[in-house]
Design goal:
alpha/beta; TIM Barrel; six-stranded mixed beta sheet; 18 strands; globular; binds zinc ion
Length: about 400
């Protein structure tokens, strides 16, 4: 069913009452939140007469959650919305699929919103080509010389890229050997991106490659590094440069054989919403790297956190079905892993709301504040003390319009 956001949004005016409100940064206590025409119009204001009241007693109202690392399609965006995720930040896509998907997202209220870098810069046979064989991808644009970088950057921006992505991966954590992007190409992409007011994010999973992209001046890391224990020097360098990190503990758990996805799959709040195929996928692991590497990722997270680095919750859930992950469900798993890594539940919630909104310039969301989009998730219980309560989704609104809470047939 396609509905235009405006047609529905113009009619809705309601107040959520009785719920504890976490505004994306702090707990406001039990206050009213009034929504009209798809926008939050007041928080703790005077309750207007004659509007619909939504009873949130015993529940907590959160800004719609943001997954800061996915690879997505329409089915995935719909599934995410049923789990209270209202925005996905895709981290590599084919324009032939992303451009029509974004059109569909603009017209439909039952899909989470999406941003994307379009195609990432990687060598012709570089990561993640080895994972995408058989996907029927069109030829990927790339660059092998510094003087080809401006055209690469212009090309992605013309495809609607919201940010740029570079991938520096030699494959050894995946048990393979891959051609690796040259440092001068990363530095040139940063230069050309910044000249166009566009952030450049990097895939780098080892201490050595992370160090290289940090020196090249990237704005964010799309994974933590976990090949060996971190060095204080690298942590300090990331903090000093103001770089943000999306640790993606979810995918690192899968790569290292940690059964985080399998535990999530056993939760009825998850299993009731996923198809058997997705449950099966979530229950698996890639198990390509030694188990102790997961511990390195947790220690790195704690060190980044102590150093004051902005941490964003992201999963690397992929519509192609990478084992150990499922869209929507996995962000809740990531929040638990952040808490396992030393975050308070409130800090974990910030990592999935106000922090990604601030770092990605999504000024209209990620907070519960008058004037912002009414992207809201109502969950039973109190996730500000018990992070597992985020899975108890009672209602979700995208731009003030109620989103689906149950899956629909895969034929959609
Ligand atoms: Zn990814």
């Amino acid at each position: 069913m396609l509905r235009t956001t405006e047609a529905n949004g113009a009619m809705n005016h309601f107040v959520i009452t009785g719920a504890r409100v976490f505004d994306g940064e702090d707990l406001l206590g039990v206050v009213d939140v009034e929504v009209a025409d798809g926008t939050i119009v007041s928080v703790a204001g005077r309750r207007p007469e004659g509007v619909e009241l939504i009873d949130g007693t015993g529940a907590t109202l959160l800004p719609g959650l943001i997954d800061a690392h996915t690879h997505t399609d329409a089915e995935s965006l719909r599934q995410s919305l049923t789990f209270g995720i209202t925005t996905e930040l895709d981290m590599l896509s084919m324009p032939e699929r992303m451009i029509p998907l974004r059109r569909q997202v603009a017209e439909s209220s039952d899909l989470a919103d999406v941003r994307s870098p379009s195609v990432g810069l990687t060598p012709a046979d570089g990561h993640p080509h080895q994972l995408r064989q058989g996907e029927g991808d069109p030829p990927w644009p790339t660059a092998t010389r510094v003087d080809e970088i401006p055209a690469f950057v212009e090309g992605r921006i013309a495809e609607g890229a919201d940010y740029l992505k570079v991938l520096v991966e030699d494959g050894h954590l995946f048990g393979s050997s891959l051609p690796r992007l040259a440092p001068e190409l990363v530095a040139a992409t940063v230069r050309e991106g910044h000249a166009r007011n566009t952030m450049v994010l990097a895939h780098a999973m080892t201490i050595e490659t992370a160090d290289q992209v940090v020196d090249a001046g990237v704005d964010g890391l799309t994974h933590s590094f976990f090949d060996r224990p971190h060095t204080d020097e690298l942590i300090e360098k990331i903090a000093a440069a103001g770089i943000f990190v999306i640790p993606t503990l979810t995918v690192i758990a899968s790569i290292t054989g940690e059964p985080a996805g399998a535990q999530l799959a056993q939760d009825p709040r998850v299993s009731s919403k996923l198809t058997p195929t997705w449950l099966d996928n979530l229950s698996g692991t890639m198990a390509m790297s030694p188990a102790e590497n997961f511990g390195y990722a947790l220690e790195t997270l704690a060190a980044l956190h102590r150093a004051g680095v902005d941490i964003l919750a992201g999963t690397d859930a992929a519509h192609l079905g990478a084992p150990g992950m499922a869209h929507g469900a996995s962000l809740h798993g990531e929040l638990r892993l952040l808490v396992m890594g030393g975050f308070t539940p409130m800090e974990a919630l910030r990592a999935a709301t106000s922090v990604p909104a601030r770092r990605f310039g999504l000024d209209d969301r990620g907070r519960i504040k008058p004037g912002l989009r009414a992207d809201l998730t109502l969950v039973a219980g109190d996730p500000t003390t018990t992070i597992g309560d985020t899975l108890s989704v009672q209602r979700v609104w995208r731009g003030g319009i109620p989103g689906p809470l149950t899956p629909t047939p895969a034929a959609r």
